[in-house]
Amino acid sequence: MSRLALLLAPAMAALLLAAPGPVLSQVPPKAPAAPAARAAGGHDIVGSWAAEALGQTVTASFTRQGDMIYGVVVIPDPLSGGSNTYHVAGVILGDEFAAQHASGHLLKGTLTGPDTAEAVFAPKSGPTLKLRLTRRAGP
Fold first, then answer.
1. Domain range enclosing 98
2. What is the total count of domains within the chain?
3. Which is it for strands 83-93 and 116-122: parallel, antiparallel or unpaired?
4. What's the confidence (pLDDT) of residue 139?
5. SS3 of 59, please?
6. Residue 96 maps to a domain
7. What is the CATH number of the domain that holds 119?
8. pLDDT greater than 60 at residue 21
9. What secondary structure does DSSP assign to 29-86, as a single string?
10. 133 CB neighbour count, 10 Å cutoff
11. Which residues pair with 12 in a beta bridge?
């Protein structure tokens, strides 16, 4: 079982096993949680990234809402001269992230520094593509 699944398992079990709680009038108000803008290690996936693979430049850009991430990954196709664009959604926990395309393609990786990440793009079928992502400057 992956580390990401191990981190999510206790929260899911707590949700499934939770008994009915007190009525709302008996629950003390909670302070709003601070937004999770950065991972525990201080690294953030938000922004534009690039990696070299098979002599081509792979690009990715991500936004974040709490632990959820949303992005676009563009992988050039050297055979056709075009590119394949994948809109992905997923989760980031600490420095580990995983995002999936609707058809099953998966990008999974680890932020290794403020401007670096190691990832693997695994298509639904076919060989995986290892990526050493570097943050790109600019908007």
1. 43-135
2. 1
3. unpaired
4. 58
5. strand
6. yes
7. 2.40.128.120
8. no
9. P-PPPPP--S-TTS----EEEEEEETTEEEEEEEEEETTEEEEEEEEE-TTTS-EEEE
10. 22
11. none
Q: Two tokens at 35? A: 């937004």
Evaluate whether residue 130 is within a structural domain.
yes
Look at the pTM and tell me if it is higher than 0.90.
no
Tokens of 13: 């079990």
Quick: pLDDT tens for 117-138.
999 999 999 899 999 999 998 6
> What does the alpha-carbon distance between residue 89 and residue 78 come to, in Å, rounded to a whole number?
26
Over the stretch 55-72, which tens digit does the pLDDT of each residue have? 899 999 999 999 999 999
Answer yes or no: is 6 within a domain: no
For residue 124, the SS3 value is coil
Q: Give pLDDT, residue 122.
A: 96
The mean pLDDT value for 68-79 works out to 94
Residues 6+ positions from 47 with CB-CB distance below 8 Å: 61, 62, 135, 136
Contact yes or no for 112/49 (Cβ under 8 A): no
How confident is the model over 29-51, as a mean pLDDT?
A: 65
> CB–CB of 86/77 below 8 Å?
no
65 within 8 A of 35, measured Cβ to Cβ: no
Q: Is 4 among the domain residues? A: no
What is the distance between the alpha carbons of residues 99 and 6, in angstroms, rounded to a whole number? 17
In whole angstroms, give the CA distance from residue 69 to residue 117: 15
